[in-house]
């Protein structure tokens, strides 16, 4: 039996679709999303073959796929080359800057940063310090847990962890 989950709080009809199925002791997780990349300066769509688009997509798929504790995760992004209401929209700015959910910079947004920002598309929040305060209650997230969503006590990683997958499933099941 499949459980379908959809994060419509962030992006109605555009959020990644997550499916799960129990297979013995393992939960098989499938994450699917359609995405397009639009240039901020002129509104044109970057082609799927663009070197940075490929880097970002491969980084997201790699970081959010694989064996994650009791989860076996397969993430697949389909890049579309036209604006689409059923696809995630990523605005791409020239030069360098700080990436945010739905906003990348051609000059310096890395594959790891893209994977972190994809976590926001799944409904996850930042887990790093803002000044001297964490973005999340440390009781909820203990500092022995690693997460691609940042660092509380310097536990950032470049790939989604079992914690991240469990968190995304919990958020998207409601």
* Secondary-structure element series: EEEHEEEEHEEH
The helix/strand class is: alpha/beta
Number of helices: 3
Task: Write down the overall geometry.
Answer: globular
Main sheet attributes: strand count, strand direction, barrel closure: 7 strands, mixed
Low-pLDDT parts are 1-13
- How many beta-strand segments? 9
How much of the sequence lies in strands comes to 25-35%
Percentage of helical residues? 10-25%
Q: How large, in whole angstroms, is the Cα Rg?
A: 16 Å
Mean pLDDT: 83
What does this structure look like?
The chain is of the alpha/beta class and 174 residues long. Helix content is 20%, strand content 29%. It has helices at 51-63, 111-121, 162-172, and strands at residues 3-6, 17-23, 26-39, 66-68, 71-79, 88-93, 103-105, 129-130, 133-134. The relative contact order is 0.18. The model is unreliable at 1-13 (pLDDT under 50).
